[in-house]
């Protein structure tokens, strides 16, 4: 089965359609699938629901999809750092499903494991629990959260072999593994594709069974907030 494609656009060919649910890996601007996001912007697909920890920043990453108004709904934990995200949400132009961060990660992981729902204490007694099933276990109240089963997963990894085994770089591991797991089709962009058999099995973070398509490319790796100390005068 061919998994390696020549470009992000080729890797997404025949996959995108209006109204689909996309799970996107990354945290802020760390480990985001920037090439695949650009290809989705260029495709013009619209009315998307995107499950991601946040929507990056204005003008980069998922922020580009918000600027082109291709996203109908976000399923996220955090809306800061992106003025357009906040503006669209507060003006009623964008639907937002808030998720506690751990709950969102577990919803993705659960979907990838074929688990339709799970109970958690997180959010009990808050607006997060409104409209959800409540159940008591050992005298404690839990709420039912549903697993996420996405039409498409887009993730960013450091290395891969041609079978799709992925290795993530340090904190870029973040939401990428659970996001990759929950998609009917997973497309991964990587910095390097290495020969089959060259990856230490103990170092593989996500097995290739979850990954359907791969693309190698150059990445900007923009820093979300750069903080430096003032230069000391000698």
From TrEMBL:
Gene3D superfamilies: Glutaconate Coenzyme A-transferase. InterPro entries: 3-oxoacid_CoA-transf_A, CoA_trans_fam_I, NagB/RpiA_transferase-like. Transmembrane segments: none annotated. One of its GO terms (molecular function) is succinyl-CoA:3-oxo-acid CoA-transferase activity. Keywords: Transferase. Its EC number is 2.8.3.5. Pfam families: CoA_trans. NCBIfam families: pcaI_scoA_fam. This is Putative succinyl-CoA:3-ketoacid coenzyme A transferase subunit A. It comes from Maliponia aquimaris. The lineage of its organism: Bacteria, Pseudomonadati, Pseudomonadota, Alphaproteobacteria, Rhodobacterales. The gene is scoA_2.
